[in-house]
From TrEMBL, chains A, B:
Keywords: Nucleus, Transcription, Transcription regulation. Its main location: nucleus. PROSITE patterns: BHLH. InterPro entries: bHLH-TF_ACT-like_plant, bHLH_dom, bHLH_transcription_regulator, HLH_DNA-bd_sf. One of its GO terms (cellular component) is nucleus. It comes from Glycine soja (Wild soybean). The keyword Transcription regulation applies. It is found in: Nucleus. This is Transcription factor bHLH19 isoform B. Residues 48-97 form the BHLH domain.
Length: 227, 227
DNA sequence: GTACACACGTGAGCC
DNA sequence: TGGCTCACGTGTGTA
């Protein structure tokens, strides 16, 4: 078959109306066609409109050929390189990529909905957890409260979301928890460890469940995870 | 411009050599071309080889046109529908899809490489084991490691012992963990929340179990609690 | 020899 | 009107 990929750069492709004709074969072919048509019409086909037409059509073909080459270049595992195959492979490849994206997005979505939070109430339960390897949750909230001092330790391990710290503080404010001290440490590239110690208002009593419920409810909204 | 998308199904496209000619215009055009060429050659171009050639070429064009339509069908937001644009948009779209996949795979990879070892060990007061539900443990150690970044988050909640922070840092040093950042927050009067992020030395590999084992072993000695 | 893929020039349709 | 795209038949090279 013709190697249309390399034909692009052949001199004959553009030398039809140039001064020299580096590719005699192609020149002759083109010239023959021209003469034939000219004879039929009884006038020279070298007139400007026809020449422009030929030139623009040639340009259009060249452009398409370039695009074909570019398209075939980004399709991996291309075996047959004829244009029809390139098109068909491109179609398959696009479908394949779409499918892969769908899978990945599904995975990502699953992961988000799989995120569980560690719900620790005001009193921690003293027993050893022997959990071995597992995936880091997107959001992990833990609250430990001291009833006597009415202080709460809140530890949050989460993916870096925009403005979570401010939202967290606002949230605590609304829960009548005043910040005693706080700390934010980055873990890796995408994770934040937030530690907050807050004082519960004297007039507002809250159980650990209530606190955790409110806290997690609003925080998980940031990740659009249904409760 | 010609609507090459709808040209596909036009009768003239395939009726050239059929018995009827449902599209007179196209038929005439084709016939004229044929006669012209035939005259030049001085013989009928209806001979079998030429006809087959024409037919196969026509088939090839039709196939390509179908592929073009199929390709343009799976490219969203296609504005210009000329072939060159379809090709160029297809190229862009493929690149775009590839980019999206790269992002998603990176995310997924991050998540997977974030396989962590979460170890939690709680040691409660020996004298409070019966109603331990309501009492803060004497020592709570938690380590969360990011395998990819070789970073470890260590969270310790403990009664204020003398010099635990220094001992902790020394211990980590001996485990070839270099401190990236740390924070100590007091909770109530008697409790400390220590947060440490440390980097694991490249040459020292440690499993989560090993880390927790060493960490807790030494820390619990501070409280003289038998392992 | 023959089957196929290509580039070409060309006429025509459409803004 | 001119500039654009398209399908067509054709000659040619290659497997």
């Amino acid at each position: 078959m013709d190697d249309w990929l390399s034909d692009l750069d052949m001199g004959g492709d553009i030398s039809f109306f140039s001064e020299e004709h580096p590719n005699p074969t192609l020149y002759c072919v083109a010239n023959e066609t021209h003469v034939q048509t000219g004879a039929k019409r009884g006038r020279s086909s070298w007139e400007t409109p026809t020449r422009d037409h030929i030139m623009s059509e040639r340009k259009r073909r060249q452009l398409m050929a370039e695009r074909f080459i570019a398209l075939s270049a980004i399709i991996p595992g291309l075996k047959k390189i004829d244009k029809a195959s390139v098109l068909s492979e491109a179609i398959n490849y696009v479908k394949q990529l779409k499918g892969r994206i769908a899978v990945l997005e599904q995975e990502s979505s699953n992961k988000k909905s799989m995120m569980i939070f560690t719900k620790k109430c005001l009193q921690s339960h003293p027993h050893c957890e022997k959990n071995s390897n597992h995936v880091l949750p997107q959001l992990q909230v833990e609250a430990i409260g001291l009833e006597l001092e009415r202080e709460v330790l809140i530890r949050i391990l989460c993916e870096k979301p925009k403005g979570i710290f401010l939202k967290l503080l606002t949230l605590l404010e609304n829960m009548h928890l005043s910040i005693v001290s706080s700390n934010v440490l980055p873990l890796g590239k995408n994770t934040l460890n937030i530690t907050i110690i807050a004082q519960m208002g004297e007039e507002y009593n809250m159980t650990g469940d209530e606190l955790m419920s409110k806290l997690t409810q609003d925080l998980f909204k940031l990740y659009e995870v249904p409760q």
